[in-house]
Amino acid sequence: MESTRPEPIEASGNKYNHQVSERSKRPQLEDASSSSFHQSQPLPESVEQMSDGFYKFYEPDPAHAATLDIFFFHGLECEGSNLRDAHISSWRSTSEQEEVWPQKWLPEDFPQARIISVCYDSCTKQTDTDGRMDLHQIGENLMHEIKWARKEHGYNRPVILVGHGFGGIVIKKLCIYAQNKQEKSVGGSDMSMFLDSIRAFFFYATPHLGIEGIEAPAEDESPLLKWMRVLNSESARLHEAFSELWRARSYRWTIFGLGEMESTPGSRRGRFHVREASSRFGDDYITVPSDHFSVCKPSDRNSNKYQHLKHLIEDVQKRVELERSQSLMVPKVTVGVDVLVTEVLGKHLRDHRFVGFSGLGGVGKTTLTKLIFNKVCAKFEFTCFVEDMKLISGTKEEIKKKVWKKMRHHGRSVQCSSDGWDQVVGKSMFLVFDDIDHHRHADLLQEIADSNGMVESRFLLTSRDTQRLRDCGDAVHIIPLDCLENRDAKKLLTAYAFPNQEPPESFEGVIQEIVVGCGGLPLTLEVLGKYLRSEPKEEVWAEIPIALRKCEDIADLKERVWAKLKLSFDKLPDDEVKNMFLDIACFFTLDFYWNADDAMKAWSVIYGSALNRIKILEDRSLLKVSHSKNSWGFDYMKFHMHEHVRRMGERISQQEGRSYNLPRFTNLFLQSDDYPHDDQIISQEGKELGKIVALSIEISENLRHVFAQDCAFCIMRQVWPKLTAIQYMTLTVDVTNCCNQCRNQRVALPSTLLLLRLSLCDIYVVTGRNSVDHLSGTLSLATCASLVRLELWNCKNVGDLSKLQRLRILEIFDCSVAGNWATSLGELKSLERLTLLGIEEPFELPISFGRLTGLQCLWIADCKVTSIPASFRNLTSLQVLAVERIIGRQVIPIGSFRQLRVLELKCWAIADLADVFRELTALKKLALYCEGISELPATLGMLTNLERLELEYPIQSLPASFSNLTRLGTLALVCEHAGTKVTVVNKPWERDNSLRIRVEGHDAVPDVLWHLQWHLTKVEDFKLHCEHGATAVVVRNMINLVTLEITVTGEQAVPDIFRNLQKLRSLKLSCSAMENNLVESFTGMSSLKDIQLKGNWNLQALSGMIGQLSHLQSLSLSHLTNLNVIPESLGNLYSLQELKVKDCPIDSLPESLGQLSSLRRLKVSFCRNLKTLPDLIGDLSSLESLDLSGSALHSLPDTIKNLSQLKSLDIKFCGNLKTLPDWIGDLTSLRKLDTTSSALHSLPDTIKNLPCHN
């Protein structure tokens, strides 16, 4: 449907229309008698008028869709400007070219951002045509235009709103207008999406509390002017409402501000000025020496007026990337949850560390938690979402290990050992346990939360059993979720059944009956709605209410829900789709041996193409499919089912006799308290065994007891012929002997097998026809012509595999080469993936190996390969080649592998390395650990798509062409030279362009580092661990560094290396010595937000220049054993949110501490000389956490009772603190009071008033 441009709202009979050709001039900010008109510069030709109030400064090429919208709102139409082009003239630079900098500079720095300038009537005097609209009309008018401008590309694209002066007030009005509409449910969904899409605001000298000195004649004053006056009640209410919306943290908003330091010349009314007290607001604020109208006109790109905004946009882009990297799949249609999400974020998660949702399965608990997770994940350093917690079983330690595997650090998986939980101690963490159902889950949650210890961390839980949530502790705030109300249920059903149109009037009655029959359960409404989408006939719809009424006769609630869901299963088009659904529900969603890709390969043999049938299941909401990449960059699928849908599938399988006998269900051959022990198993009717589809068998001593048989082959010979439907099987056989009857006998595996995993000990697997004279029998694969995946573990005498012509994946682990399976590898023409691991006996790859022209992935490791044929070069479809630790000095003949994306070689050498690099044009990862290579050729620079490079060999330099690898994000280098070992590594869970260097030895700056430093200009995240401080010079040229961590273990000082690092935002410095002016050198870095200084320095006092770090948000000083003074200039750090001082000999804190209005966390721990705190600590209005542990305090200042936001107070190990004051009970927000190992004799009675006491 073609979008229609919105009509503006009229004011006093006039429309405020902007015509590009119009040259008229409107009144300026002055009297009519003194009006002067100045010819404005012509509009830039590339400015496109999108609507009455929107002008497009820039839009990315259609081939590269925009990922961000930036809207610019101009201020008052001022003296000396042309009224009609304020949306352009306001944003001209003061450079000689007078460029429109949002149009010229921003697209070069942010090419994926769409940039729009907003125009509206901001005239301060009323005339017949201008100055007649009030702020309410402007807000409503622009909101309609914003909705229209974003409709075509989707409402969810992130937004940054930039306002100058009065433009900032317009922005606030827009947000409050949208919030009010959302609360009244008038266009609420659109309004909610708009507010949620906003990521940041930037205010250029916006007078939140009014402008000093601005007036206008009363007789021709515009309604807008009142919003600019000091102490205006409406303006104050608007700012308070907007501030409350921001403080509630319901939305992902960051606010930056830039204030003016000079007053602005006016007309005969004198000068006016937006004071700092009026414009200071938000997360990060700086001032510049400019007046009101030049504050948004930078002179060049290095100006703070531009750089401050640029930093904000960069922050937003990185945050959005973090959100996208962690974003969880949610239903496309959600009804009735937006308000609840906002309430949870704005209230419950703000006030409570633990929040739990309880309710019936299918009511929407998981969807709600995913929506919340997607909104807040980027705010936390560590995040973890564990879906279907009930499926994670074992001891608490086993569960803990499994949960850790799902943990993410800044959006990247933490691929390390299970003891990595130490990493989250003292770090912000957002942890979700979805569907807990065991006391071990509750115990684990409490353990993790206690060890984490961060007030900022949040824990979200769901369960069908409210008692399970209570088991997690009294601190859990439980929110019960009910089914949808009739109106929302109807809206959800029709949204799925009629996605692009209104339902016909004749369907109204049957829709209402279906809504009632579904009982408001979102899952049932979704599944039936998607089924009915493809059924336009009214008589088909009429069948559903009848079937739903029959379901109501079922007493058990779960059975009743499953019966309703089964209506959609019954309507699936054919048995093939139904069987695929049952396979997924009962087998392929259980994280067993095989995955969704294996399933697709298996089904391609049975049904032909499986994609269309999977699409049917997706369209019916019976299945969700996600796509990810493995460590080698290959795409892989994963199936997801709602628990109710999966349980329904299991129930249908049981009813139809279609059996998936896995350890999680009824394993035919497992002996336990839950399963039969006698030979009744073997005597089941053939038709029952004939319906078994999946089977996991371990033939052991227990099984022999069940069957009263000592011979495994006797057992298999009885069972195998009856498994006529078996498709997926794992078989482990523990055979130490074989009966005389089975010696030299062949047991054929079922011919219907598609996926097979054999783990055998002392048993022989052959596919040939000749008998083998051995003590035990043999398994034959000769009849398994349909196999698509075969895994062999610890097998002996594996024979000719050439009969398996449909085999696509073959994995052989720790098998003997007897049986000559290796000679038949070249005959497997359908093979796509081959893995050979741990084969210790010598073998050759056959000459026919080059016939595997469809082979995509080859991994050979820890094998004794004696010969690699020249035909190896013919494997032109290879995308991954990994050859590791092959015994012998075989040269790998690499050909023209133009599709190769991953090359990992840990072997002797590669033939013609220089020529090889010329051919590998698609290579993204290269890992070389080859003894036969002493240097890399210049052709390394031809690998222009390379993203990861790992090298380990004696190296002194890199080729000059190394600088051509512009896409390289990860470098891992281990080399040793002149007695000093240099290790350059990258942790896979860190973000791209990150680097770690460890230097062991006394060579201050090894040659390789001197050479390497010129290639590191793109590095953004760098850690250096060294013994000699001079090694840090490698940092000097990393001009794009964002985070830097340096650890020096020796006594040599770190030189002055920071002056070029103007983009640095995080600095962690730990060393024993330093140059005297080092602290002063990094105080000039205006972008710094986080400083951590640690070590036994001779530093006695911080430089007063530290107060110049206007962006600083976190300052940590620890183990500085000579630091005894913190300067008063600390009070100038208005953006500081966290201050930590640990184990330093300070005896006082500066009085200016009370000026830190943004400070949320103050930790002064184990400073044993600290005996008093400044009274002005009570002015810290934002303080939420106060840690005074280990100090020498005798008492707490009375002003602490003024800290209305304080949630955590830590006074443990305070040996001189004998009593707590009575006013402690006035801290109504306090939720944690830690008095461990303190000297308190007793607690005041008022302690009962604290939330943490209850």
TrEMBL record:
Residues 20-29 have a biased composition (Basic and acidic residues). Transmembrane segments: none annotated. It holds the Pfam family NB-ARC. The keyword Thylakoid does not apply. It comes from the Eukaryota. Residues 350-501 form the NB-ARC domain. GO terms for biological process: defense response. Residues 31-43 have a biased composition (Polar residues). Coiled coil: none annotated. Residues 100-227 form the DUF676 domain. Keywords: Leucine-rich repeat, Repeat. Residues 1105-1186 form the Disease resistance R13L4/SHOC-2-like LRR domain. Residues 1-45 are annotated as: Disordered. The keyword Repeat applies. PANTHER family: PLANT BROAD-SPECTRUM MILDEW RESISTANCE PROTEIN RPW8, TIR-NBS TYPE DISEASE RESISTANCE PROTEIN-RELATED. This is NB-ARC domain-containing protein. It comes from Riccia fluitans.
